[in-house]
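Lecture 7 notes. Example A: sequence first, then its structure tokens.
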Amino acid sequence: MTIKPDIQGLLIYLTMAGYLLVFLTAVKFPKLAKAFFAGSFVLSLAGLIYRWTVVGHLPMQNMFEVFLFLGFCIWPIHILSRKILNRNDSVLMAVDAALGLIVLFPAGFVFNHHPQFLPPALQFWLFGPHVAAYMLAYIFLVKAAVFAAGGLILPSRGEQLAKTTADSGYRLVAAGFPLLTLGLFLGSVWGKYAWGDWWGWDPKELWSLVCWLVYAIYLHAHYAWPKRYSLQHVLNVIGLFCIIITLLWVNLSKIFSGLHNYA
């Protein structure tokens, strides 16, 4: 575990403290929690802007910057999710705050934050849209997996809970899947520009395709068997594991080596 004793670290830790306060106050003091949540977003934005000024390029290059960006996205996606799910309850706020803590932990305590030179292949206008599309998609899809896990863990609560969690999971996947598709498409276009081919069978590309296929199968299952809630939940959880492999294992494992190993 590595503590970051500088301005960047301070902004990350203050943001995490804000998310923790949201989690602790969401149920009993929801109005106060909303204020903490908005304040956490401001701090996360400050952290992202500070990183941008330090490195001199869009901070999405390595694992530290990716998780920093994910922490910044939590509050805006929380606001969108309230509209998508048509709910504004304290539990949703607490879950999203916990997610914020989880994604900022690697940025605050795991990954090195020393500035890195941006490789020539990344100096292209699709760099930001490609990475951002994936990161936004991942947050929506991880939130969907949270509902799916709830549906699998609490089957004794009845069919109504199963239906509610399945519906919430579907709405979030329906929001995240187009972004996932956009990220895959932009990556293919970028690959043609950077490496001369639309598809290079790189490990990152392969696992990104696996993720896309899992959620495509999930959407098919949702329409083909709308009342098979357990199947939908299982596919959502499988999708989560595929995201973890794509985002973390492919980048960090020595087993995989490819064109995307910039972290």
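Example B, a different protein, same format:
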Amino acid sequence: MRLQHYLAKAGIASRRKSEQMISDGRVMVNGEIILSMGKKVSEDDEIRVDGKIVKLSQRSMTVMYYKPRGIVCTNSDEKGRKCIADVISGIPERLYPVGRLDMNSEGLLLLTNDGELALRMTHPKYGIQKTYVASIEGHVTGEAIQRLRRGVVIDERRTAPAKVIRIQTEGIHEKLEITIHEGRNRQIRKMLETVGCRVVRLVRISAGPLSLKGLKPGQWRELTESELAELRKALNFNEMAVQ
């Protein structure tokens, strides 16, 4: 298989980031620094990244995790905040978060050692829809909802139209269900701030064909074979280039 696919399959990074590592001269095959994306390798080759030997994981693994509030979506944090590695235990493989949920948001987060799956989940080309439930302080006007549906400008760039449904009113709070296919930094919060809405709670309830149903905050489970098959179908793995 091509070197960048090998690195992604080994869980080192996504295919795109693996290509960057190769371009940066960080990857060696059998003692030779490789700068070309066309290099073919096998498990018989000695492959090193930053001097460390890389082996394919024993098996590909993807889990669904209900991230609670207060957890940082990294395996380590220089500020000493509680992160994924502090709360997930008992997994034999080294897994990496797919995308991010900001520290104060919660809900569905995938962890995987499949670099190609991680790349496709976060790449806008594949348009994976993600659905959130946002609890808003006060009343949300119909005009605000229409603006979100059309797209609003955040970080000097307009968002794609979103699907927005008013689903519940609880005392001084209203709930909106919002579905987007982009993955920009703190996108839902920024969209709502733009239309004058203050978010008091934000939960990601689904991503593509996967639903958070059945998990409680802090719980995780491995994807079933049928869930993984559905996800790979949604990500067009049938169009995967020959490795």
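Note on Example B: The CA atoms of residues 209 and 231 lie 6 Å apart. DSSP finds seven helices and 15 strands in the chain.
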